Amino acid sequence: xxxxxxxxxxxxxxxxxxxxxxxxxxxxxxxxxxxxxxxxxxxxxxxxxxxxxxxxxxxxxxxxxxxxxxxxxxxxxxxxxxxxxxxxxxxxxxxxxxxxxxxxxxxxxxxxxxxxxxxxxxxxxxxxxxxxxxxxxxxxxxxxxxxx
Length: 148
What we know:
Elements: H1 5-19, H2 28-35, H3 39-51, E1 55-58, E2 64-67, H4 76-84, H5 91-94, H6 110-126, H7 129-138
Antiparallel strand pairs: 1-2
Helix pairs in contact: 1-2, 1-3, 1-4, 1-7, 2-3, 4-6
């Protein structure tokens, strides 16, 4: 259930674009520098985020990347699912066809794993990039998990 390094970079790239929403496109180099992301890896991630419809790009002298949606309409869960796939603590909860388990259908732990998946998914899917921006600027997020 670990969020991959690639996904962490994608989240940070989207966060940087959310911070600059409405200020025109920003370059991959600016995103990489602001969020400490290796530029070569970021370029690959940005292409994937564009294909998924989360960002737009513009070529040319004043080109760069922009968030395609409002930060309040984009959740952390949407990015995680797009980059890393479904959230699940173990394989059988992620893949409903995981019949290779010898305890398939009788596992006493399955309800626990499903509750864990549901709780984590709820947090990711209910946290928008606007929530993260608000937390950064005021120190108070909308969700208990953001009240650090």
